[in-house]
Amino acid sequence: MTRFSKRCVLVAAVAENGVIGNGPDIPWKIAGEQAEFKALTLGHILLMGRTTFESIGRPLPGRTTIVLTRDPAWSHEGVLTAASVEDALAMADDLPGDLMVAGGAQVYAAAMPYATAQVISRVRLSPEGDVHYPAYDEGEWTVTATESHEFYERVFLTRAHLATDVSD
After folding, report:
1. Distance between CA atoms of 159 and 84, rounded to whole angstroms?
2. What is the model's pTM?
3. How far apart are CA 111 and CA 25, in angstroms?
4. CATH number (domain holding residue 136)
5. What class of enzyme is it (predicted)?
6. Is residue 168 included in any domain, yes or no?
7. Considering only CA atoms, which of 154, 160, 120 is closest in space to residue 141?
8. How far apart are CA 78 and CA 137, in angstroms?
9. Cis omega before residue 104 (within 30°)?
């Protein structure tokens, strides 16, 4: 596997039933969770799929956005595009900050082999949804920190053979 100079961190809010979305929507609103996402990703590079980007509708301030798309004609002002996770990782090498993967499910799955860390907000709900966080081998990951919040628990995981603690 190709090595990259950046950390690749998967950042997701995941319900108890594995749901991360229902179509293009997040099936919950939890006070403070989006502020935590902003604090974690500010100053870094956000990688997301086109559908996730279009559900947000704009690049998020204070972050470089790379949109993963199979459509070479797709573009949006203020964002970079990549045809693969490997292309995005190569682009990230020349940009400030770490690569923070923000969804959707196909992007998480494609980035999982390169991930050095995961930050999972484990939401205490089991909503209806058709988009799920990909399965991963829990034996490859070590919990380095947890934070309890009213409606979710944030868990910081590092991959043992690639570990750089993201909770610092």
Report:
1. 22
2. 0.91
3. 21
4. 3.40.430.10
5. oxidoreductase
6. no
7. 160
8. 36
9. yes
